[in-house]
Amino acid sequence: MRTSFNVDLSGMNTFRMKVKCRCLVEYDSVDELREVVADPSLPRPLFPIGGGSNLLFTKDFPGTILRCGMKKIQRLSPDRVHADAGVVFDDLCAWCADNNLWGPENLSYIPGEVGASAVQNIGAYGMEACELIESVECVDTRDASVITIPKSECEYAYRDSRFKHDWKWRYIVTGVIFRVSQTPSPVLDYGHVREAVKERFGTDDPAELTPAMIRETVTSIRKTKLPEVEEFGSAGSFFRNPCVSKYFYTKVSETAQNESLGAVPHFDLEDGTVKIPAAWLIDKCGWKGKSHGGAAVFQKQPLVIVNQTGKASPDDVVALAKAIQDSVNERFGIDLNREVEYV
Question: Which residues are catalytic?
Answer without folding.
Answer: 159, 237, 339
